[in-house]
TrEMBL record:
One of its GO terms (cellular component) is cytoplasm. It is an enzyme of class 4 (lyase). Keywords: Lyase. InterPro entries: NAD(P)-bd_dom_sf (IPR036291), ODC_Mu_crystall (IPR003462), ODC_N (IPR023401). This is Ornithine cyclodeaminase. GO terms for molecular function: ornithine cyclodeaminase activity. Its EC number is 4.3.1.12. The keyword Calcium does not apply.
């Protein structure tokens, strides 16, 4: 069995390829050739959590199981906030063919699905991106947007402003040409941004709906447990279109949507899954806001693992 590190994977497998592979995987899912179980989420202590995610692709003839730890405060001890490994098995003989570090792949597949959803829902002329939360998932989430929209301005907000400085440098070193501004007030981000990315561990909304720019699209990537919230209920209530990365997963885990349903401000049948959204056109006027919500699903991780494995061998 081969073993591949994050560094080896990152050198050969990029966002454009991940978006293409994710799109193909969603079509395979629509063909009924992917089987999965809902991920098992086990809280450890505080906001630390372990996740276990299995899936089988009968078209690509691979199975994947990902084990992921999310420890938000790890940076203080010199460890990544997100650590993961995926075991890939070929289905002809059941041989475990590879173990892949999956921290980078987790971030990459999150960015890939963000890119697909942003392309479906955001205005084609969107030029300004707002980023709320500059932690482990935020960078690739931004790259996913940059892959599908010609972004000219990026605004950053984080509770710890110094983390925005490092994030800005990382974007610039990656070759991002957009003007990048660090904001001390989250309202300065939401009021001016055509696309808003959130990736936090907040237990309450990270912005007020009244300050969201008309016509904005929101990508919500945090709040992966029922007690967490990022997107304001009022934004959920008035959104013209809502897409979930995986409907069953969001119903079980996405705190702000669970709360909105319980308060009568949202109904689950108002949203559709990303796989069902691929071949649809979404009408909207200049003031409509749209939302993409992700909690992750094993077929996204499997897609990235298979794509990377094929590039590596």
């Amino acid at each position: 069995m081969k073993t591949f590190t994050d560094k080896e994977i990152e050198q050969v497998y990029k966002m454009d390829e991940a978006i293409k592979d994710t799109y193909n995987t969603l079509n395979t899912l629509n063909e009924g050739l992917i089987k999965m179980e809902q991920r098992t989420v086990i809280p450890v202590e505080g906001d630390k959590v372990m996740l276990y995610m299995p899936c089988v692709d009968n078209k690509e003839k691979f199975s994947a199981v990902k084990i992921i730890s999310i420890y938000p405060d790890n940076a203080a001890d010199g460890y990544p906030a997100t650590q993961a490994v995926t075991v890939l098995t070929e289905l002809e003989h059941g041989e475990n063919v590879a173990t892949l570090d999956a921290s980078y792949l987790t971030k990459l597949r999150t960015g890939a699905m963000t890119g697909i959803a942003t392309d479906l829902l955001s205005k084609k002329e969107a030029k300004e991106l707002g980023i709320i939360g500059t932690g482990g998932m935020a960078f690739e989430q931004a790259l996913g947007v940059l892959e599908v929209r010609d972004i000219k301005k990026i605004r950053l907000f984080n509770r710890t402003l110094s983390k925005c400085d490092n994030f800005k440098i990382r974007l610039e070193e990656h070759g991002v040409k957009a003007d990048i501004e660090i904001c001390e007030d989250v309202n300065d981000v939401t009021s001016a941004s055509d696309i808003i990315n959130t990736a936090t561990n907040s237990t309450q909304a990270v912005f007020e709906d009244e300050h969201v720019k008309e016509g904005a699209h929101i990508n919500g990537l945090g709040s992966y447990m029922p007690e967490m919230r990022e997107i304001h209920t009022d934004s959920i209530k008035r959104a013209r279109h809502v897409i979930f990365d995986d409907v069953d997963g969001v119903i079980e885990e996405a705190g702000e949507f669970i709360h909105a349903v319980e308060s009568g401000d949202f109904k689950w049948n108002k949203a559709i899954g990303l796989k069902d959204a691929l071949n649809q056109e979404f009408e909207r006027n200049n003031s409509d806001i749209t939302i993409f919500k992700s909690v992750g699903a094993s077929y996204y991780d499997m897609s990235a693992a298979i794509g990377a494995y094929k590039k590596l061998v």
